[in-house]
Amino acid sequence: MNKNVLITGTSTGVGYESAILLAKNGYKVYASMRNTAKANALKEAIEKDNLDIEILELDVTDLNSIQSAVKIIIEKEGKIDVLINNAGAGFAKTTELASEEEIRWVTEVNYHGVVFCTQVVLPYMRKQKSGQIINITSVGGLVGQPFNELYCGAKFAVEGFMEGLATYVGDAFNIKITNIEPGGIATEFMTSAIGKTAVDGKLATGEYEPVFEKYMAGIQKRANESQEQVYQTGIEVAEVVLQVAKNENPPLRVRTSKWAEDFCGLKTQADPDGTKLVQQIKDSFL
Fold it and tell me: Is 27 an annotated catalytic residue?
């Protein structure tokens, strides 16, 4: 029986590549995005390879939108086997310069959206006694980074939310949870992040400006040095998504490159995939 997958944020990048790759590997994919006017590339890929993908409108910052999309899938399929929380947005700006609207936005997109999508899908997975939730988080969910503190804060929140959830929905309801933690991804995600940073056409202002310019120069240097393999492509991360989806016993955490593994080494060396920690928590509380 084909597995039904709901993926958020599929207009570009990892979501787009994951939708195509999963469909090519026998999954029925519901590819969602906030603005379906951006679905042209995905539509062309569907037609070209005759892929079993349906495009849905879903805004992760709107609970009604999430509920409507999930209802469509349940009415057609009766179940959702895999939820891939991929939708997110980068943000690089010092806390002092960020507006209230920006702080709320980066949290809504990167954290609240994951919580609400999970909340809406969980009852169906619980009733069917099976399911898998895969979250595209980031090394920024484990390691705080300069000028990314608001983004990292939201990703840390996802990591904590999913870590807590994994301690009881796995044994009780056979729902498996994995956080996929890429380093840099060479997609429109980075362009969007930098675009959100601009203040009156500048990347930073005041006393922060020279520090920020140093930070941006470092990003550009790493991007140009491909031999360091800092930045992965969307398809490379999508291949990890597929491996996790096919895994009968997936770990809580997976980094997607050697660079990401090394970058998080101090945080993860005692328990790289999170398995020991989840077991310890279960032993302590359940």
Answer: no
Does the pTM exceed 0.85? yes
Q: What is the DSSP letter of 97?
A: T
Spatial distance between the Cα atoms of 102 and 99, rounded to a whole number of angstroms: 5
CA distance to 92, 111, 143, 188, 239, per residue, from 195 (Å): 9, 20, 23, 10, 28
User: What is the span of the domain harbouring residue 273?
Assistant: 4-199+231-285
The dihedral sign for the CA sequence 257, 260, 263, 268: negative
Q: Rounded distance, CA 91 to CA 162, Å?
A: 22
| Angle CA 90–96–98, to nearest 5 | 40
pLDDT confidence tier of residue 194, bands split at 50, 70 and 90: low
CATH number for 37: 3.40.50.720
Note whether residue 156 is domain-resident. Answer: yes
Residue pair 257/138 in contact (Cβ under 8 Å)? The answer is no
The answer as to whether 193 is a domain residue is yes
pLDDT in tens, 155-171: 999 999 999 999 999 99
Q: Of residues 33 and 226, which shows the higher confidence score?
A: 33
Tell the burial category of 79 from Cβ atoms under 10 Å away from its Cβ (0-12, 13-18, 19+): middle
Q: Which one from 27, 30, 151, 215 is the annotated catalytic residue? A: 151
